[in-house]
Amino acid sequence: MGILKGMRVVEGSAFVAVPLAGLTLAQMGAEVIRFDRIGGGLDAGRWPLAPSGRSLFWAGLNKGKKSVAVDMKTNEGRELITRIITAPGEDAGLFITNLRVRGWMDHVTLSQHRSDLIQVTLMGDRHGNPQVDYTVNPALGIPDMTGPEGHEAPVAHALPAWDVAAGGHVVNALLAAERHRLRHGVGQDVELSLKDIAAATIGHLGLIGEAALSGKARTKSGNALFGAYGQDFLCSDGRRVMVIGLTDRQWKNLVKATDSADLMTRLAADTGQDLRDEGVRFELRARITATLAPWFAQRPLSEVSRALEATGVTWAPFRTVPQALAEDPDLSEDNPLFTDMIQPGLGRFPVPGAPVTFSEFSRETPTAAPELGAHTEEVLSTVAGLCDTEIQQLFDKGIVENSRRVTRSAA
Amino acid sequence: MGILKGMRVVEGSAFVAVPLAGLTLAQMGAEVIRFDRIGGGLDAGRWPLAPSGRSLFWAGLNKGKKSVAVDMKTNEGRELITRIITAPGEDAGLFITNLRVRGWMDHVTLSQHRSDLIQVTLMGDRHGNPQVDYTVNPALGIPDMTGPEGHEAPVAHALPAWDVAAGGHVVNALLAAERHRLRHGVGQDVELSLKDIAAATIGHLGLIGEAALSGKARTKSGNALFGAYGQDFLCSDGRRVMVIGLTDRQWKNLVKATDSADLMTRLAADTGQDLRDEGVRFELRARITATLAPWFAQRPLSEVSRALEATGVTWAPFRTVPQALAEDPDLSEDNPLFTDMIQPGLGRFPVPGAPVTFSEFSRETPTAAPELGAHTEEVLSTVAGLCDTEIQQLFDKGIVENSRRVTRSAA
């Protein structure tokens, strides 16, 4: 009963960005049909794995989708996928992909079967070459400015941030194109690339202007907040916290919580600088941090937490993911985002639904990911419009397959 | 002439996520009106700054928007903002914000003036507390798994990745709600939080399942690709490259390019492991890297580049941003994404437009960011429907302001 109920999207994908886009659409109520080759796509066994050997990654990114498994090396398999993508329906004819198969899976070919088809294709770079988050990121300079001050080597991010950003753009682009189709009846071919997403974003954030106008690379500043004050501190029990003094109010609250107004007045007098200027706080961050560090070092996390909360400081403790699971109600069923549920073949853990709430719709419980090919028969019947005899023949010939578990040992 | 032409969105925002959402909408052709307090919002002087002292950050995230400056501490100012947000128009009545001002700027109050108002509010966390990328990220465990192997302290990412992700969700949510309004005529109140976006995403990527089922924190693996093979290497001239062996094809191409098939056969025999299994490649990454390192160490980047390109390896050089600007045509006008242009008061540099292309629309040239308040008079007249006398009175009373440059010294 989500906000996109009635919309049907076909997804031909692997890895993060397009599966995440499909997931976002599915968790808003769209019917999302993901097709894969028999035995599973390139990401069928992607780490992390459950103790059972099955991919937690795949299960996480394909929740609530329908799964179809087809041998796309055969003409019959290709025709089936074409029928599924271009099947009739006012809110269908929507295809998202990062497979970029030339020829039969091009927009120009597919739209011969449905002229108002909307196809969104995510490429690695604008030239159509494969690129991944792990290559786009170093090419554009982010790892060079990441990591401890003085650490010489670049440090890559652990989160596939560009993939996540690209997934958002795939959804945006699909919804914008479908809005246009609703009004004007025309489909279109939509293209974007992971590298262009990253390049545009660093431009929007001012990093290209900074490099062009200063000619200099931004230096690493460890865990400091760039351009204002924000820093990590060790507490007396070895726990670490991040505290923020970005806005005037945040800075004042931090000074108040740590009872350091006099120390900051002295620092301002010593340096002749005005700490109300956020840039001055960044430039003087080492001295500010040295001034504040003893306050944190003398208190355990529990006491630091109480003092920061009481004064309204913007802050957070550092945690490992298991610590966050154990400590933070926002990762538990206390948060309506999460449902503690069994993912078949994997185990029980808190599973997130859609992170956006719409006042006209109640929040839906997340649905588990399908077994690979679990909906092959259903989709061939209801979407592709095949009769039982035709479907049986396809199974007999091995052109399609139902429900296969992909485990690491089978990969 | 973008795909969203005719849509009018009002933005009350600061920092990254909502301004980026407004920018995405503006670069798809929507009229986006950003309002700020007189003198500029919390992000008016956000780093990085141009040599002129003006914010490259603000200029980057507010390109092509209209800017209105209003004193929102006065009732008259609040009424003006209310009129602008709830002004008539079939494709208007769309409001995105992260200011979360209770009372007059609530959906329940604003929708008294326009019952089909769609309001998308981004909060820090689901409780309505302020949180920023710099706090959400450590709380959920990403810095703990980032950085060189064996490095004890957590390493924060330099890219505000959760803000960027949240910006995508704000656009998604707005377009989904507007689609629903087009069909059913009803507006709604849409809410999301930065922390929920991050929590949902790490769940979707399998990190919560991994932590729950293994009970263990993922260890840092430096610049290695997690779960398969991918690693950085130093070339003979000191340049560094990232090479990818994630898929079978990528792995085979890498082995071929580095002429290391025999070495890999020997490694497989020595260890009794099958390197065709992506997980095995991750587990044996130290030995694979030691085997491949001499090949890179004996060649300068130019030679490495030729060999990798010839074999179709997925790879990239590490660069600083200035290096990327100098070396990479994807950050220049060779890429239609970029236009080399003067940003008034800042300087000349390549400016990105929209990273998504729609076949029914030609790619638009990006437009510079406005001076703060530059469109106050225009918007009061055309959107709020005030007459010249009323507008003049507002300027006389100081309730609104036109065009102010915010520089660091003025902040």
TrEMBL record, chains A, B:
Organism name: Litorisediminicola beolgyonensis
UniProt name for this protein: CoA transferase
GO function terms (MF aspect): transferase activity
UniProt entry keywords in alphabetical sequence: Transferase
InterPro entries assigned: CoA-transferase_III, CoA-Trfase_fam_III, CoA-Trfase_III_dom3_sf, CoA-Trfase_III_dom_1_sf
Pfam family, one: CoA_transf_3
